[in-house]
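BUG: 3D viewer hangs when loading the predicted structure for this chain

Environment: internal workstation, default settings.
Expected: structure renders.
Actual: progress bar stalls at 90%.

Input used:
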Amino acid sequence: MGLEIESRRSDSPYVERVWRSRSSDVTEMMSVASARFDLVFWEERGETHVAVQGPETRASVAPVPEDATFFGISFALGVSMPHLPFERLVDGNLLIPGATRRSFHLKGSSWHLPGYDDAEAFVRRLAQEEVLVRDPLVASGGGPVSWVSERTLQRRFLAATGLTRNAVRQIDRARHAAVLIRDGVPAGEVVHRLGYFDQPHLARSLARFVGRTATRLAQADPAEPLSLLYRSSASPHRADD
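Structure tokens produced before the viewer hung:
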């Protein structure tokens, strides 16, 4: 069966996407780079686990537990947990100990485990308790603004994402390119749409951030599944390398 992933968009300004998955007869996947962080819940061999998965700056092969079920909340750009500095999370994760099927602890409080259908209510409570904060400037992608300096903008991106604004742009553009290619758009057209210099430039970006060539993205390859891949709501049309 491989890795089955289901996801949905969210109307919460704090949430990019809600997803769930089940694994069977697969031992690893290609984890695609992401500028967002996730709160992930999974059950494996009768035990419940919770972890904060940080942003990933490049694609990497990740193990997949056998016969495990996952549920996750991918947070929107600009959302962070200030009590968990991103230097601990970028290209890593933080396992939250002591989770049960009913509850887990976060920032000194006990929380009921949310589900796929009530994730937004759970996130709303996290925001009310200031476990989550949102920087609206970063959430907007840091478009041209006259009242803030480039230095301040970069500092706010680092605080809210753990990444530079350019790194966020590069990752989002590569993910957007991968989605377009997977949907049948020719690589040459993707280069034109997203502002890559040429097809070799696109190829390098896909290799670094997605771990796939354009040819492989256009083909079904269930033997080596990808992690959740979708076009971000803040995907840029152009970014400089």
